[in-house]
Amino acid sequence: MASSRKTTAPYGSWKSPITSDLASVAEKRLSGVAVADDGRLIWVDPRPHQGGRAALVMEPKNSETAPMDLIPESYDARTRAQEYGGGAFAIKDGILMFSNYKDQRLYKHSLGGHSPVALTPDYGGPLVHYADGIFDPYFNRYITVMEDCRQSSLNPTTTIATISLSSGDIQEPKQLIIGSDFYAFPRVDPSRKRMAWIEWSHPNMPWDRSQLWLGCFSEVGEINNRVCIAGNDPDLVESPTEPKWSPSGELFFLTDRNNGYWNIYRWVEHKNEVVPVYSLNAEFTRPQWIFGIKSYDFFTKDGQNYRIVCSYRQNGRSYLGIIDYELGSFSPLDIPFSDVLNIVSGTEYFYLEGASPSQPLSIAKVTLEKLSKVKEFSIVWSSSPDLSKYKPYFSFPEVIKFPTEISGQSAYAYFYPPLNADFQAPLDERPPLVVRAHGGPTGEARAILDLYIQFWTSRGWGFLDVNYGGSTGYGRAYRERLLGQWGIVDVNDCCSCAKFLVEQGKVDGERLCITGRSAGGFTTLACLAFKDTFKAGASLFGVADLSLMSAETHKLESHYIKNLVGNEKDFLERSPINSVHKISQPVILFQGLDDKVVPPDQSQKIYNALKEKGVPVALVEYEGEQHGFRKAENIKFTYEQQMMFFSRLVGHFDLADNIIPIKIENFD
Asked: The Peptidase S9 prolyl oligopeptidase catalytic domain covers which part of the protein (predicted)?
């Protein structure tokens, strides 16, 4: 409980009830939701306390019972397709299909049954990955994206494949669609005669350029009469995504043609025309880093005509509503979430995955009154179920619009000031600041209740989450600021925003730190190598050598870096490893040893170079962790050691927490 009187103590030294244990268990990212035939929700439940295992869970029949685990604890519903996964399961007629993490085989499991049954061969290791699958009832088979790494792990073959469900025997998948580098969203129409899908090829990422295709099934289930619906015009830059068939058999999808924002479109079959359903300078979806994104769905109530329930993102906020696609109208719905990720429809209700500055990542069930007003909004699942007692310690974000180094141009960020119900700082002190550069770099900082942020702010740190140029959520033009400019625009924007807060008197300019994961780790290291804004940095599985990264990374991103950086000279000049002589500020590095996206030698290389130069540096390596930490104990240790490192080398205050520091080379 918060005390009635506040104790005066230096920023950074405050005692907080938001512990590293609490924050680490709350770091959960959902990777799939679906509705079963009885209308109940199924989702992938991430469990850091079980070593990062992904369980499949079903909504209980009543609110008084707990969600039901659907697969035994020895199974882990995760796919390694494109390394980032997603779309690991599907459900229909009481049959569950899922990818198992350890062997990456596809398993079939009857709800209420005993043990899952493998349908795909054992290749002697996790060499073939499956994702984004759907049931094809007409041919009694499962259609899925298949990534085959047997010939090459760096350049696997990606296809759309089928697995027969008739016999239940283990069988080799059959290729249905081949030829492009990547595929996603195979979707069969209600008549079961046609299928739509998304494909793209190097050097593009799916948000750069992609194509929406349609084909008809032959009598034996092959694809004939293929036609490209969107993305085939060389003069029209667009990236169609998320095709979905309406209950009446009309094809809808999202694309960013014309206005540079992902809006909902419909294919008018008899005219072979693509027409907008509702046009707005706002994003109705997000980049396809993972499989299984569900940004909209069809919804009806009381037998009325189907509408589209969807959300769009504008100026850093999500807005939910109902589109009448016959009238082209949008009816907003008022909900507690200000951030919406996925939407799936049930029977006269729908589910949302979302959050807000006061609500952590959660799933909510929504029922409407006359398709225009929210009648009931109830939480089905939350990454942190009971946080009400910590609310006096929560810091809420301030939207920051700041000038970039280009005249007349602005970028955006969220600033969380230090806040604690029990403590205050001396009047003449300004707080230290942690700046976070998000990953991707085609990603976005979102204003939601993140206990990692609150872990800092409740101890007296300011926290700045920057949406540098190149971030998503602001349209194609904003996203493409980073093309050929990675290591320049992101670095300049992070530094400019931090200095903007210093000029406003919000933070201490002598105690600025920066952190980031993956691409954000690269931005962190680049800021330390090429700027003098920050006094220390923490890189989590960040890129140090762009040339090495380009040569070693996985297939999805093998051309991505070239688009972001440029020519060989740019690669050399912007790689922090080639400018170690310019780094004089302390650095702490965290790395998963099973990371295939940013291999461990990236962190090891920069660590050895800084150690030899005499810069204070520390390296923490985790066995069994990939690109992003999933085990609660490792997440907790990372949180604690980041804070201890910054406090010792920049903050110059004693932490209230009892954390044993790791050894810092060239310092201890």
From this structure: 451-651
